Amino acid sequence: MAQRVAGSDGGSKKTSRVRVAVRLRPYMCGQDDPSEQPCVRGLDSQNLEIINWRNAMETVKYHFDVFHGEQTTQQEVFLTSVKPILPHILNGQNASVFAYGPTGAGKTHTMLGTGEQPGVIPRAVREVFNLVRAKDKAQDDGWNYSVGMSYMEIYNEKVLDLLSPNSPDLPIREDKDKNILIPGLTHTTLSSFSDFEKLFVPATLNRTTASTKLNQRSSRSHAILLIKVVRTQRSLPHRQQTGKLYLVDLAGSEDNRRTGNQGIRLKESGAINLSLFTLSKVVDALNSGTAVRVPYRDSKLTRLLQDSLGGSAHSVMITNIAPEYKYYFDTFSALNFAAKSKLIVNKPFTRETVAVPVLPVKRSREEHEAAGSGTEPNKKKQKDEKKPEQDGSSHSTNYNSLTELSVMERLIALEKRMMSCQDRDGQSVLQDVAESRREIQELKEKQMEFERKALLLSQLAKEKSSSTEEPVFDNTSAPLQRKRPNVTKLVKQQAVVQPLQVSQRQPLQQLPVKKQSVCVIKKEKKLSGLVELPDGKENPKGVAMGFQLDESVLDQSKEKILHILNTGCLKDLKGLQQIGDKKAKLILGWREINGPFIKLEDLMNIEGMSEKRFSSFVKTNILSSLGK
Ligand SMILES: Nc1ncnc2c1ncn2[C@@H]1O[C@H](COP(=O)(O)OP(=O)(O)OP(=O)(O)O)[C@@H](O)[C@H]1O
C-alpha cells in the first residue's frame, strides 16, 4: 500500500509560504463605459496599484510574487505560476493551485480556459504526462509511475463526486500519516492526456453553476480536480510514493448586494463565503509561520486541502481581479486578502500620492479629512482647490449638497451608488446621491413635524393632569429628543424597573401617537421582542405598570443598529455599546468576507459573540438609540 515517506526535506513540519499571483482580466466587451479608466493597473511584473476609495487622489500599492496584466496569455500564467511546482508531485510531494477572486473576475477562465485558450488545468495535466514520460524514458530513474484522477465539487459544504454525479455527500478522513482521504470518491487511472479529456469535459458539466447579476454562468461550488501520481520502485524494497496535485477553481467571493442573490443563491453564497473566509484564515496562519493552530477543520474546503496547503506542499494562489469600477470594492477586498496571504515586502497599505488622470468621483475636502487618509499638505491643497467647485458647475452643486450629510452617510451613499449604477457615469452617480440626500431631508422634515405635534400634545396633557401629580421629568422642552443622561438617570432611580420601562407617570403615556415612540400598556408583562430581562426571566419584582415598546419602534432601532453594522467604519462600530476595538475589527472582517449582515442575529457568527452577549448587546443598543 502507498505510504507517505519523508521527502528530500526530511518531511519536516515546516510550513511553506503560499505563492500569490494576481491576474487582472481585460475589460469585457460591452461592459461599462469604454472610455472609463480602470480602477486598478499593473506597475511591473510584481506590483500593482488601485485607487484609494477613501481618497481618489491616492492609490494603494501592492506587491505580489507575480502580477499578470491584462495582456498576459494563458501560457504565460501557466509557465510562470504553475509549471515550476509540478515536478514535486513526481517525488511524492503535494501541490495545489487555486484560483480565487470575485465573481466574474476570470477564475474559471484561468483554470479551465477555452478550446482555443486552454487554462491551467489542461496544461498542468498535459505537463504531468510529459514529466512522467520523460522519467519513464530515463534509464537510471528506477521507478514506475502511474497517474490517476478524481474530480469533485464542494457545494453548500457537501463533497460531491463529479465523476459519479448521483453519489451522496462524501466524508473526509485523515489517516495516521496525516494524508487526507475521501472514502467512496471515484479515482480513475489515466494512461494518457486524451483519457483525461474524455472524463474531465463531461464531468465539468455536472458542476453546479447558475446565473447571477454579475456572471451568467457563475460557479456556485468549489471545483477540485485531484491528480495523483504514484511512483513505485522497480527493485526491492519496492517503495511507493504518492504525490497529489489539487487544481481548484473556487466559487467567487460574493457581495450579495451586487449579485442580487436571494433564496437558494443566498444560502449557497453563505457557504461559499464561509469557506473562503476559512481559507483566508488558513493561508494567513500558514504564511505567518507562527500560528499555533491552522484552522483547516473549519470548512470542508480547507479540510480537504489540508495535506496540500502548508506543510511540505507547494501552493500557488492566483487571485483574479477585474478592472471595471463596478468591481472596485470586490477587487479591493480580494487584493487585501491576497496581500494578507503572503509576506508583504512593502507595507500593504502604504499610500503614495500619484497623479490620477481621470477621477470618476470627486470627493469633498471634508470627506478626505474625515476618511483620515490624506496627508496634511494634501488636505490644505484640497481645501484651496475646492473653492471654484463651490461656485458653480452642476457637478459641484450636487456634490456640495452632500456636505451637510454625515461623512458616513456620504460614504455609504457613494458606495451604494457606485455599486448599484453599473453602467452609469460619475455625473449620474452624483445626481443619485443628491436624490438620496433629498429623501433623507424629507424624512427629517417629517420627523420634525411629528415632534412638534408630540410637543403640543404633551403640553395639553400636562395642563390636564392633576396638580398633585408631578411629572417624573419635564417633557415639555424637547419631546422625543431627550438626552441620554436623562435616560440613565431614570434607569438608576428605578433599579427594579427593567430596561425600556419607564414610570406610568411619564407624560409621554398620554401621547396618542403610536408609531413614533412608546405607548403605555396597563399590564405587567415582559417587553416584546428582544427586550427581555438579562437572565431571560420575567420581571421579578412585578412592577405595577410597565411600558411596552411599540413593535415599530423596536424594529426601527434594530434597523438602525443593523445599518451601522453594515456600513459603519471602525469608529462608528466602536460607537455601538459593547463593541470595542477587537469586536469592531472582527465585524469589519466578517463584513468584508461575507457581505452585509442580513439580520442582527448574524452577529453571533462573530468570534466571542455568544447568544447571551448578543442579547445584551441588542438591549443596550436599543436603549442607547432610544436615549438619543
Ligand atoms: N483573461 C481573460 N481574457 C479574456 N476573457 C476573460 C479573461 N478572464 C475572464 N474572461 C471572461 O470573463 C468572463 C467571466 O470569467 P469567469 O467565468 O472565468 O469568471 P469567474 O471568476 O470564474 O466567475 P464565477 O466566480 O462567477 O464563476 C467570461 O466570459 C470569461 O471568458
TrEMBL record:
Residues 360-400 are annotated as: Disordered. SUPFAM superfamilies: P-loop containing nucleoside triphosphate hydrolases, RuvA domain 2-like. Transmembrane segments: none annotated. PROSITE patterns: KINESIN_MOTOR_1, KINESIN_MOTOR_2. Residues 426-453 form a coiled coil. ATP binds at G101, P102, T103, G104, A105, G106, K107, T108. It holds the Pfam family HHH_3. Residues 377-392 have a biased composition (Basic and acidic residues). It comes from the Eukaryota. One of its GO terms (biological process) is microtubule-based movement. It is found in: Cytoplasm, Cytoskeleton; Nucleus. Keywords: ATP-binding, Coiled coil, Cytoplasm, Cytoskeleton, DNA-binding, Isopeptide bond, Microtubule, Motor protein, Nucleotide-binding, Nucleus, Phosphoprotein, Ubl conjugation. GO terms for cellular component: microtubule; microtubule associated complex; nucleus. Residues 17-344 form the Kinesin motor domain. One of its GO terms (molecular function) is microtubule motor activity. Kinesin family member that is involved in spindle formation and the movements of chromosomes during mitosis and meiosis. Binds to microtubules and to DNA. Plays a role in congression of laterally attached chromosomes in NDC80-depleted cells. Belongs to the TRAFAC class myosin-kinesin ATPase superfamily. Kinesin family. This is Kinesin-like protein.
